[in-house]
Design a protein that fits this description.
alpha/beta; 8-stranded parallel β-sheet; 23 strands
Length: 379
């Protein structure tokens, strides 16, 4: 009887061990994806926070920092390695260091994780190398954020294959080359950020095909040519920042008719022509045209719908007088009309009574508060 009972007990234990082993295998990520993550780990060096110390064992779906798996398929669905969100108890970095927290490069093995919907490897400063060209194979990718690193090379021309992308953030790197024309195939894109790079050439003329775009940041590059007129067709565009480039041509009138556009920043380019009255009379709260070659008079089209947190038209070639209708604006916080060729008396009342001299200095013959009093010659 004892022998029989022992055999039964052994059989039950063996079955339980087999069941547990089977369950562990089911819950683990595939071995091929584990191998790909190991290759990614090998290509990156992070000595300060111990992030990769959690990447141990064979189950990459269990407590691996920055890794999330699909609960049904157990395939790797997200990689989230953001240098600004590492828990404070791991921060042993000298905060005055000029080099990055993590160095190395992004391994092409990342393309073997074919079920990825989100890749965030950002804010490390020290990660270099290029964006793997095989990224086009990740057809389910919705978020690609590689910002604030030292990535070089060009944006892969095949980027347009990632038609599910809603966010593309490559800001604050050393990426060169042109903006691929295929980028306009990303019809689901909501957020585009390419600022602070070394990109050159023209903005694609059919940029307006990005009809779901809400925010576009292309500032601090070497972009040339005109602002594409098709941008004004993007109904939901709220923020457009093309500052600090070498763009030429005019500011298009339809930009002022865009129903959602709230912030238009075009400062320090080579734009010419007049400022459209539609832009000045729009519902924007931020309009920055500083440091261009814009000419003509400032249209007297301000009124109750005008609500400018920032209105900067300085360092241009604007002439004529300061529009009196600015006094009837709903609100004007900061305004700068300095370094132009404006003339005549500065209107009184709000907002002029609280603006500083710097808002009007270095014009041809402006006078009145806060500048010097007007004389017969200056009015």
């Amino acid at each position: 009887m004892c022998i029989s009972a022992s055999l039964v007990t052994l059989s039950v234990v063996t079955s339980l061990v087999a069941l547990i082993t089977q369950l562990q295998l089911v819950q683990s990520c595939p071995s091929s994806e584990w191998a790909s993550l190991m290759a990614i780990k090998a290509s990156l060096y992070e000595p300060n926070f111990g992030i990769f110390h959690t990447w141990r064992g064979t189950n990459c779906c269990y407590k691996w920092y920055g890794i999330a798996c699909d609960p049904t398929t157990r395939r790797v669905a997200q990689i989230n390695l953001n240098g600004l969100t590492v828990p404070d108890n791991r921060r042993r970095l000298n905060r005055h260091a000029t080099t990055g927290y993590m160095t190395g490069h992004i391994s092409p093995s990342i393309c073997n994780l074919t079920q990825l919907s989100s890749i965030t490897i950002s804010d490390w400063k020290g990660i270099s190398g290029i964006i793997p060209s095989c990224i086009q194979t990740l057809s389910l990718l919705q978020i690609l954020d590689l910002s604030n690193n030292s990535i070089t090379g060009e944006v892969p021309k095949s980027i347009g294959s990632l038609t599910q992308l809603t966010m593309l953030n490559l800001a604050d790197n050393r990426i060169s080359g042109t903006i691929p024309t295929t980028l306009t195939n990303l019809r689901n894109l909501v957020h585009l950020d390419l600022r602070n790079n070394l990109m050159r050439g023209h903005i694609p003329t059919d940029f307006g095909r990005l009809n779901n775009l809400n925010r576009a940041f292309l500032s601090h590059n070497l972009l040339t040519g005109p602002i594409p007129e098709t941008i004004s067709r993007i109904y939901g565009l709220a923020v457009l920042d093309l500052s600090m480039n070498r763009l030429s041509g005019k500011v298009h009138e339809p930009l002022g008719r865009m129903p959602v556009l709230d912030s238009l920043k075009l400062k320090y380019n080579r734009l010419t022509g007049e400022i459209p009255s539609t832009v000045l009379g729009s519902r924007m709260t931020h309009l920055d045209l500083r440091g261009n070659m814009l000419s003509g008079e400032i249209a007297d089209v301000f009124g109750e719908r005008s609500y400018f947190i920032n209105l900067d038209l300085s360092f241009n070639n604007l002439s004529g007088s300061v529009p009196k209708s600015l006094s009837s604006a709903n609100y004007i916080g900061h305004m700068d009309l300095s370094h132009n060729h404006l003339c005549g008396r500065i209107p009184s009342g709000e907002p002029f009574d609280r603006l500083r001299t710097t808002s009007f200095e270095h014009n041809k013959c402006l006078c009145g508060m806060p500048l010097k009093p007007c004389t017969q010659e200056t009015v």
